[in-house]
Amino acid sequence: MSIRLLIADDHHVVRRGLIFFLKTQEDIEIVGEAKNGLEAVTLVKELQPDVVLMDLIMPVMDGIQATREIKQCLPKTEIMMLTSFSDQDHVIPAIEAGAAGYQLKDIEPDELVLSIRRLIKGENTLHPKATSHLLTRINKSDPFPHEVHKLTRREKDVLIELTKGKSNKEIAGALYITEKTVKTHISNIFTKLEVADRTQAALYAVKHQLFGR
């Protein structure tokens, strides 16, 4: 089954370049393109793509607000930010808005395709710089949340490894458990912390200072 994808970017040349390459992939179908965030929201409601490649800075409505509105009406549509900005002032708000992926525009085409496929599978699709910001941002004003006490010691271990950007296979190797067990723990983590995906779980872990606990 093809991955139905919509591209939102205010630069025509960028959209053309992405379409030129992505349309060669047998498992990716380009269903639409938008030149600003408002147009992206409208098209997503109409076309209901699986994935949106979302630019961050656009006229009329930026990528963060567009992501927020899309996730409110179509939570199953995955958003991957594709931008030139790697600082935490852009990364964190994008993830908090609901973006499950964050990549920079200098990404190699093959790596972009791999990231899209991983996004659909629910795997980590954060650029290393984005992951670094998650790992270093500790919000000391946040209280230690009650929800964390629902996690078992092993679930906390899995959550910490997940936040480092590791795949299920890598987590399994690090903790000496099976991939099936990792998947079970991750499902439990999502339920207990009331988060939708790995990116939201990683952000939760950093905000609430779970490292070293």
How would you describe this structure to a colleague?
This protein has helices at about 10-20, 35-45, 65-75, 90-95, 110-120, 130-135, 155-165, 170-175, 180-195, 200-205; strands spanning about 5-10, 30-35, 50-55, 80-85, 100-105, 125. With about 210 residues, the chain is α/β, with parallel strands linked by helices. It has two domains: about 5-135, Response regulator (Rossmann fold, 3-Layer(aba) Sandwich), CATH 3.40.50; about 140-205, Arc Repressor Mutant, subunit A (Orthogonal Bundle). α7 (about 155-165) packs across α9 (about 180-195), α7 packs across α10 and α8 crosses α9 (about 180-195). The protein starts with a strand and ends in a 6-residue tail after the last helix. About 40% of the residues are buried.
List keywords for this structure.
single chain, 213 residues, alpha/beta, Rossmann fold, Arc Repressor Mutant, subunit A, 10 helices, 6 strands, 14% strand, Sig_transdc_resp-reg_receiver, transcription, CheY-like_superfamily, transcription regulation
